[in-house]
Amino acid sequence: KERKSVSEISVIWKCSKNKINYWLHEYKIPKRTISEAVYQKYNPTGDPFKIKERLTSKEIKLLGLGLGLYWGEGHKKNKVSIRLGNTDPRLIKAFMDFLVKICGVKQEKITFNLLIFNDTAEDLVRGFWIKALKINPEQIRGKATILKSRKTGTYRQKAKYGVLILQFHNRKLRDTICNMIEKI
To answer: pTM score, two decimals?
Structure first.
């Protein structure tokens, strides 16, 4: 009931782990997987999100937008995090609103990484994103990743403020969002 590990139970009862495993097996008490145990360790109070169930028409549109953005722009190869990168702050803000308003993620738990060109001032770019998204400066993690500047093309103008990558580390929410997309 308390979701303790075999090791913790063996210490409490002053017996071997083998004995605990024997009795778990004997009484057909299921054990958590290592993945479940690790998830619980890092989320002792439960999931750090709660998908909203009753949605207004405006929230239904935000749900559709959020799923579409993740489907089109999200980094789905990462199995443990929700990641989405873009140069447009409106797109990042819309996805952030989806995570906060529909998925129940606390905004301060969302972090960001920044990719900029080598001829761009990092402080200026950080300031731009902080102001555009109204986020805490500490949410942009570490130093920016520096890319070699492209002197020509329209991408250079669009990426004047770099690429901001939004991320929220939670495999269960990532899987939930992917399952919602699959149902579509």
So the answer is: 0.81
